[in-house]
Amino acid sequence: MQIQPDRRLGPYENKARDILFDASPLSELRAFQVLVERYESAKTNVEGFYTHPVRHRKNRSYNLYSFGVGGFRFVAKVDAKPFPKDLASYVLSGHGPFRGRIAKLEGNEMHSAIMEMFVADHSRRKDQYPRRV
Fold first, then answer.
1. What is the pLDDT of residue 9?
2. Whole-angstrom distance, CA of residue 47 vs CA of residue 105
3. Band of residue 129 on the pLDDT scale cut at 50, 70, 90
4. Is the pTM of this model over 0.70?
């Protein structure tokens, strides 16, 4: 299988491979950091959807990937540059308390991508998706 150019981890590919296959501990990849956000919405049941991992294309200053599961959004950074200081307390470290941010679904950069995936899936299945009332 050939890896698409925009899905490569650059200088982190070999380290990530070693970690995934138990040849190295996760602490070997210091550029890897993960944040967690909890979605909230007055219009959508956020607990009922998930997204596949996607690379962030808008934020070119970091190499970021994210995915959603059960109302949570996980953002993984594979980049030597640390997250900004205002996000530092939300980085999962395995030490200290677990913290995450609350994020409104509507207006979030992932909202339009989630809605596009939703509509595309229903179009592919040729069924009707719920219309807004």
1. 66
2. 12
3. low
4. no
- The total of structural domains in the chain comes to 2
Name the nearest CA neighbour of 78 among 37, 28, 38: 28
46 in the same domain as 12: no
Nearest to 19 by CA among 27, 11, 10: 27
Same domain, 59 and 116: yes
> Which one of 17-31, 58-72, 107-121 scores highest in mean pLDDT?
58-72
Quickly list DSSP for the chain.
Answer: -PPPGGG--GGGHHHHHHHHTTSS-GGG-TTEEEEEEEEE-SSS-GGG-B---EE-SS-TTS-EEEEEETTEEEEEEESSSPPPGGGGGGB--SSS----EEEESTTSTTHHHHHHHHHHHHHHHT-PPPPP-
Both 57 and 107 in a single domain?
Answer: yes
Residue 7 lies in a domain: yes
